[in-house]
Amino acid sequence: MAVQMYIIRIKCLLKDRANIFWTFLFPIILSTFFSMAFSNLYTSETFQSIKIGVVKNESYDNNEEFKSALKEASMSKDKDGSKLFHVTESSEEEAIKLLDENKIDGYIKMDDKIQFFVKTSGLNQTITKSFLESFEENINTVTTLASNNPGQLENIIDDLSDSSNYTEANSGSNPPDMTLNYYYALLAMACLYGANWGNKEITEIEADLSMKGARINISPMHKMKLLICNMLAAFTVHSIGIMLLLSYYIYGLKLDFSDNFNYVILTCLTGSILGISFGGMISAILRKKEVLKGAITSAVIMLGCFLAGLMIVQMKYIIALKAPLIQYINPAHLITDAFYSLYYYDTLDRFRLNIVLMIGYTVIFSIITYLVTRRRQYASI
């Protein structure tokens, strides 16, 4: 009997077009738009050397320090051959003409001090101005220190020339990708949208909320046994949909979730159960119509996904800094962070913490749902 009710309930859920769309099709459509928006994010053109002119006059010819600094900045230092400046030496008249024709971003003229002439302001002009200011500051520093302690001139120049880096980049086994958090948060939203399925299951066994619930309460079948069958059916349909969405991510959008694929599946299944149990608890507590309960549930889920970085990826880090407690009570963050930890971290400590919290909240939501619905009676049906 229970197996038959389970199969019948699966057939009923597959005909629920609204839940099918919002839980499965909507995330697929949204993730496709994400992919279109992010497709060229890391394939844009590489840095182009800044084209500047230098007025070749007596002051410039006699300033070996500046010529040396400009030459060093115009040399390729990277494997791709990129350099900061592409310098054109010319007369002032030729430099003005090149600037008017937009063939250079600006030109430098040396007299008593360094002058930089531009036609418009922009990033290239700002970089060049910063370079010139840095050069002047270093020259002034060397001049001042050398006048006070001439014997240390060589050491002073060595110190200013030293560009040692005291930090070491360590990004783990996978390269950093800021766009992945959007997909993680979207998948978390799809998991938590299982709440709509849990909401529906509770509503349909309550006699004062639906005609079907009235018939169930006068039938010989135990209400709790029927609820378990229905919840299992909801989990089956919802988890299959989540697996299809995950397959689209991996094989359609070519997203890299990590080598721990079994743990990725575990996160999806745990998130699905969490969403269904959350919706069941909300529906059991609120004695309102299904539409209103669905609206409240969706609002709570979207708020949680927003805080997990679905709309603004930096929100995840803002919450971690300003209100870290929210991380541990936000189901959307727990699901997103589980995917995040599998991709970026070499250990499973953070992943295990997220899974344990998700299972803990699922148990709490289920217990509350059971306690609220098991003894509910009706004066008349």
TrEMBL record:
Pfam families: ABC2_membrane_3. It comes from the Bacteria. InterPro entries: ABC-2_transporter (IPR052902), ABC2_TM (IPR013525). One of its GO terms (cellular component) is membrane. It is a multi-pass membrane protein. The chain crosses the membrane at residues 20-42, 226-251, 263-286, 298-319, 351-372. It is found in: Membrane. One of its GO terms (molecular function) is ABC-type transporter activity. Residues 20-371 form the ABC-2 type transporter transmembrane domain. The keyword Zinc does not apply. Keywords: Membrane, Transmembrane, Transmembrane helix. This is ABC-2 type transport system permease protein. It comes from Mobilisporobacter senegalensis.
